[in-house]
Amino acid sequence: MSWSTHEVERSTVVREIAASLKGERGALMPILHRVVAEVGYLTHEDTTVIAEVLNLSEAEVHGVATFYKDFRREPAAERVVQICRGEACQAVGAEALVAHATSTLGVEVDTRSADGTVELEQIFCFGNCALGPAVSVDGRLHGRVGPDRLDVLVGARTGGARPAGAQR
Amino acid sequence: MSRAQRGRVQRVYVPADSAARSVGADEVADELVAAAAAAGREIQLVRNGSRGMLWLEPLVEVETAAGRIAYGPVQAGDVAALVAAGMLDGAPTQGCHGRTDDIDWLASQHRVTFRRVGVTDPLDIADYRAHGGFAGLERALTMTPAAVVDAVTESGLRGRGGAGFPAGIKWKTVHDAGSDLKFVCANADEGDSGTFADRMLMEGDPFTLIEGMTIAAYAVGATEGYIYLRSEYPDAVRIMRQAIDVAYAHGCLGAGVLGSGLGFDLFVRVGAGAYICGEETSMLESLEGRRGLVRSKPPIPALAGLFGRPTVVNNVLTLGTVPMILAEGPASYQDLGVERSRGTQVFQLAGNVRRGGIVETGFGITLGELVEGYGGGSASGRPVRAVQVGGPLGAYLPVDRFDLPMDYEAFAAADAMVGHGGLVVFDETVDMARQARFAMEFCAVESCGKCTPCRIGSVRGVETIDKIIGGVDRERNLLVLDDLCTTMTKGSLCAMGGLTPMPVQSALQHFPEDFDRPPADTAGLPVPDKFAAETAARNAALMAGEVQR
Ligand SMILES: Cc1cc2nc3c(=O)[nH]c(=O)nc-3n(C[C@H](O)[C@H](O)[C@H](O)COP(=O)(O)O)c2cc1C
Ligand code: SF4
Ligand code: FES
């Protein structure tokens, strides 16, 4: 197999992460979390490396990596919008908010926009159920988010908030 | 500025709880610092937990000679004006509620588990001690482990994670099990929508959980503990990890806890977005680094749990209550509550409710007292129509059941459950057929896939309810739905599939009119079937005679 320099570097980083956590009990979950946190997402090659370090079968590591939705398989979009669809948020309009988001952002739930800039995800509860609808934008949690506020929050993270003339 | 004010450091509290932060507490804290500096006042800003009056967040408290004075909700833009109006001296400005301790909503509660939440600085271990922290552990260390187990049994404490199993009995099983390695695991997965008490305890008073787990370790003979904390709670993960570091630095964890012979190591493990990992055996699988597939019982985790070793698995609130039980004696806890539901429950008011937040009080309070009394009815001002109690697997109850006392057995008798104590309020605009549909949809999304009634039944459930909503052959499809519910209840391996029928059937029982409306369009609503490919492959293999059923 011939890997590009980038891939070789990546596999070195992943190997180091796996080796450094190998001694923990049930090390696989912490390793997968750390890899996603540090290199952004998980590739098939990553799971191969991790399996090697932990002395597990590739199928085992792959099975775990795909069972949990946090272990993303592609880089995050520029903007990650997560809307809670738990019952408490539904009681204050979460479904209408999701509909608003899909139409204004032009993406279906749990997909990303065609240009790859926005990702819309449904979440079942952020533990902010008395102050719903709860929405997280790029990892920052917001409460009482109606459609207008969602537009502001999402807009605030797009070009609109950047200084005029700034390059993307 | 008077002479007395000059040079006095004013202590001001602004919660760092993630709910408070979600409505601007960080911005308020920044503005307070700036406004105080501009006014030439020296303040000491404490980022406490939340008092649980979430409708008043961000809630600012100012310490005065008369006690802490509460202001809220404070908006970021209001801070300068409030400071100018004398907030830093406890002046009765707009939005001032007087002494926090006198606010009836709070004063009328009976806080045991949540005693320190919002009161102390979450990561200040001296503050923790000053408010009674470690008294329970110190007391436990003077007793035999068996006596500690007995105390927990006598208190009547039952598991707060949902099933209400007596904690002392579980601990005794682990205590009696012979093994050189045992574990204590805190279930901090808190996946139930409408619940947030575990999160608020971990963010607002993390040492209480550490102390409770340490007492459990001493009682059952465990040396290692794990907190399985969901990834949707990044603030709680950070605070819990910091608190563990502080506890080690002060000799409260590690070898020789508080100078005793007890050695106990504690770790935080982060979940990865799977609701089913709140089910204890699925959680253990996940902790071991595997897919979160539910294990069949027996063996029970108390005998063969984490890595096959005897393991205590308890909810955060269960473990977080133990220090108070030890400190004050089991009788004082046992005195609270009713019937076989002893002590207090940390109720969580959520959804369409005017005053949402934490109400900790003895069992026996009625559903109506919580929703109408503490909650003040709906936030929208429309009449309340339904309350879902106990998370996504709990029943929907109508207003005419508001007389039900919060009590495990009384709820079970009403085909409902107390669960983790979450109450989600809906006003009259709710469509209960849609809620029933959602219960099935949620099960289809979150099923671990191990057994057929849950994996396939939930997808069929969504489709069947869609037909009912769409007016297709209603009578027959209601029968099909009833059949499906029976199969799921009786044939599922765990309560995910086993209890999903509860919200569905309660909706049918109490709100039948919602299933008998003019046909509506369900096109575009999600019908998740994440195991479709696997099911198809399996069916093909079955047809080809390659696998046994
Ligand atoms: C689908 C499912 C999800 C669950 N989620 C949680 C949870 O998030 N937190 C929790 O403490 N218990 C949860 N439980 C209950 C646990 O299996 C277990 O009973 C509990 O952790 C035991 O602790 P306790 O006795 O202190 O309540 C769940 C159970 C099921 C079936
Ligand atoms: S009932 Fe559902 S979640 Fe539980 S074991 Fe079966 S498939 Fe898994
Ligand atoms: S249900 Fe939305 S935050 Fe809990």
Q: Please, could you describe this protein's structure?
A:
Chain B: One of its GO terms (molecular function) is FMN binding. Chain B: It holds the Pfam family NADH_4Fe-4S. Chain B: Keywords: 4Fe-4S, Iron, Iron-sulfur, Metal-binding. The complex is a heterodimer of chains A (168) and B (549). Chain A has 168 residues and is an alpha+beta fold. Chain A folds into two domains: 63 residues, Arc Repressor Mutant, subunit A, CATH 1.10.10; 76 residues, Glutaredoxin, CATH 3.40.30. Chain A is 45% helix and 12% strand. Chain A contains seven helices and five strands; from the N terminus they run ααααβααββββα. A five-stranded mixed sheet of chain A has the order 2-3-1-4-5, covered by helices on one side. In chain A, α3 packs across α4. Chain A is elongated. With 549 residues, chain B is an alpha/beta fold. Chain B has four domains: 101 residues, Glutaredoxin; 210 residues, NADH-ubiquinone oxidoreductase 51kDa subunit (Rossmann fold, 3-Layer(aba) Sandwich); 86 residues, Ubiquitin-like (UB roll), CATH 3.10.20.600; 111 residues, NADH-ubiquinone oxidoreductase 51kDa subunit, iron-sulphur binding domain (de novo design (two linked rop proteins), Up-down Bundle). Helices cover 40% and strands 14% of the residues of chain B. A five-stranded mixed sheet of chain B has the order 2-1-3-4-5, with helices on one face. Chain B has a five-stranded mixed sheet with strand order 13-12-16-14-15. In chain B, α7 crosses α10. The longest helix of chain B is centred in the C-terminal third of the chain and has 18 residues. Chain B is globular and about 80 Å long. The mean pLDDT of chain B is 95. The site of FE2/S2 (inorganic) cluster (FES) has 11 residues of chain A, from α5.
In short:
Chain A has helices at 5-21, 28-39, 44-54, 58-67, 87-90, 94-105, 147-156, and strands at 79-84, 111-112, 118-123, 135-137, 140-142.
